[in-house]
Amino acid sequence: MVHIRTTITRRGLGALLAAGLLATGLSGCGNSDTGGDAGGTDKIVLGFSQVGAESGWRTANTNSIKEAAGAAGIELKFDDAQQKQENQIKAIRNFIQQKVDVIAFSPVVESGWDTVLKEARDAKIPVILTDRSVDSADKTLYQTFIGSDFVKEGRLSGEWLVEQTRSATGPVNIVELQGTTGSAPANDRRKGFAEAIAANPNLKVVASQSGDFTRAGGKQVMEQFLKANPKIDVLFAHNDDMGLGALEAITAAGKVPGKDITIITIDAVKDGMQALADGKFNFIAECSPLLGPQLMDLVKKVHAGESVPTRVETEETTFTVEQAKAALPTRKY
Ligand code: GYE
What is the pTM of this model? Predict the structure, then answer.
């Protein structure tokens, strides 16, 4: 056993792990006989560049990744880019220099990644995109992309509104709080929503601006919306946190959220679900942040040189007030 384990190459070890052959035995005996794994020498090293800590979704996503890496016996080098692309590029270059085995990252914006991704490819370090994608034409720059279908989330939100406003006879004024400018979820949710609401010509987006996916941003931009638009019927916020920030602005303006203004958000994190169960929000399209376990599986596979699907889509649902009440008690994040 000792002999086998100490002579396995990184690639070979990854293959065995991926096949499930050593998955359980390794951690059990590794610490006792050679101590090799405890020293980290045989562990897959994953460099992960996170967007930041802008929302409840992001916190849950970070926790999921850290927990899953620990459970999978993967050594995680974690970097928080504080929502700046330049920090992410710097972190990726550091990972390349440190010769990590695999790089994964959640790109803050869609554009501008080709150069650094080419550097990773030249260094023969496989890259996995998580949560958000890039707009690179060269698909060989990364192995796979795991995350949600953001266009669908926007579309589901819009379709629900179309359903609710079927009997509306006059204009329904919508304001939109966009996510981080240039990010995939902001671009795609906006697109899906616009496509869906086109089914009812009464539905009109009268103002649309970025609140950067944060509560503070949501509050501030909603204040401006309320000042500039005397009649707001609906708020579509690209995430729960901006919706939660907007609640404060709406209440301060003397309006009742969920009644005077119908509120639709995306994510379904705990605070958002609570607002929905309380009737302050009216509908949430879920976006799951629990990407850690699937990401670690993919890390093992690409490290072992196994082929992986180029797209791994997250499963999600939607919630009305009643569904939120039912789901809240067992909600994990
Ligand atoms: O919806 C938002 C977060 O990229 C899916 O980023 C993610 C989005 C999520 O800040 O809350």
Answer: 0.88
